[in-house]
């Protein structure tokens, strides 16, 4: 009789262990979602206001970048999935999520949404390789990109990738709409590596603000 009770206890204990393990796995796997629910339902956080406050901080940082580089426009592109193909794969797209401009400079972000990355693969490759530091659009060999930039009134630009957890997370850059002076162009080309590193550091600091 004691042996039967012992077996019964062990069987029940085994199920408790299994259930506990499943619960722990669920909590670990969905910890971010659980935290978000707690924030919404228990702490009553205002998600909209928090998002707006974060956006203001990022826009201020972009404005500082624009001033520091004497540019006319600063922006952030982020990547996202588009439509699904029949084989289940996704069409990769990018959108301009943040933009700040100087007085008198056009805003372009609203029409730079859901852009298929495949249309600008050469440009993206140059950005990823830290080659997109252009003081004259005639330096561009990619005619599609050159035309798209000319439509926006761009005469020069600097764009770098921002990585998070080893994966490309965003593109951060500045545009020059007014012609870059000859003195600025000479100074940049003579100190190119130093200027690029400075720009990368500034953009990485902004990227760290992104959610």
Fold and architecture overview:
- The protein has 211 residues and is an alpha+beta fold.
- Helices cover 49% and strands 22% of the residues.
- It contains 7 helices and 6 strands; from the N terminus they run αααβββαβαββαα.
- A hairpin with a 5-residue loop joins strand 1 (73-84) and strand 2 (90-101).
- The model has no long low-confidence stretch (mean pLDDT 83).
Average pLDDT reading: 83
Helix content class: 40-55%
Low-confidence stretches: none
Named CATH topology of the largest domain = Beta-Lactamase
Largest sheet: 6 strands, antiparallel
What's the arrangement of strands in the largest beta sheet?
A: 3-2-1-6-5-4
Tell me the name of the CATH homologous superfamily of the largest domain: GAF domain
Radius of gyration: 25 Å
Oligomer: single chain
Strand content: 15-25%
Strand segment count: 6
Write the SSE topology.
Layout: H1 2-29, H2 31-41, H3 47-68, E1 73-84, E2 90-101, E3 115-116, H4 121-128, E4 133-134, H5 143-151, E5 156-164, E6 167-176, H6 182-190, H7 192-207
Antiparallel strand pairs: 1-2, 1-6, 2-3, 4-5, 5-6
